[in-house]
Every structure is written in C-alpha cells, then in structure tokens.
Design a protein that fits this description.
It is a single chain. The protein is an all-alpha fold. Helices cover 71% and strands 0% of the residues. It contains five helices and no strands. Helix 3 packs antiparallel against helix 5. It starts with a helix and ends with a helix.
C-alpha cells in the first residue's frame, strides 16, 4: 500500500506543479495584455499632456477665449511649421520662441497632430 501512496502523492504534486505553471503563464499573459493596452493609450495621453502646457494662453483643447489664436482644428503642417519657426528664431514672438526651444521635433509633431484633431468652436 505504501507504493500507491507515493504514486498518489507524486501525482498530486505534479498536478499542483502544472497548475502553478499555468497560473504563472496566465498572469504573464494578462500582464502582457495590460501593457499592450497601456502602450496603445500612451501616445494619446502624452499628446494631451503636451497640449495641456499650451492651455494657459491658447485655451483648453486649443480653443482660445481671448485674443490669442486658437490651435484647435488648424492644419497639422501649419502648426508644426510655426512651432519650428519659433524654435529656430525665424518667427518672432514674446514667449513662444522660448517655449518652442524646449520641445523636441517629435514633441512638436505630436502636439501639432493633437491640436489638428481637435474640433474648433
């Protein structure tokens, strides 16, 4: 009877081992799926964060309520060109040349894309 008990014990141990491995694999799969979802949302969140830095003058979502130009719905190429001109010093301004110098070309493209996609009022 003792050999049967050992066999049963090993079988139970193997089953627990297999369940443990399956649990780890499932957890890894869920984590990978979560990372993929977060990565898919990251660019939009990053673009909104960059755009938020413009809100004090250009309004929330690029819709100005004052004398400063609205950015919402403007052509992406136009926005990117103007920012690049501020950045290089080719376009005069008070605050914008200083701010634009702080952005990478990729960030300028990202924020221009984001504002171009916003609906103007």
């Amino acid at each position: 009877m003792q050999p049967f008990t050992r066999l049963r014990s090993r079988s139970s141990s193997n089953r627990e081992n297999a369940l443990h491995k399956i649990s780890i694999a499932l957890a890894a799969g869920v984590a990978a799926l979560g990372s993929a979802c977060a990565a898919a949302q990251a660019p939009d969140a990053r673009a909104r964060s960059l755009a938020a830095t413009c809100a004090a003058c250009h309004g929330t979502n690029g819709i100005s309520v004052g004398d400063v130009d609205s950015l919402a719905g403007k052509a992406k190429d136009e926005l990117a060109r103007k920012l690049q001109e501020f950045k290089s010093g080719a376009r005069p301004g008070t605050v914008m040349p200083q701010l634009a110098k702080g952005y990478t070309d990729e960030q300028i493209d990202t924020v221009a894309t984001w504002f171009a996609a916003q609906k103007p009022k």
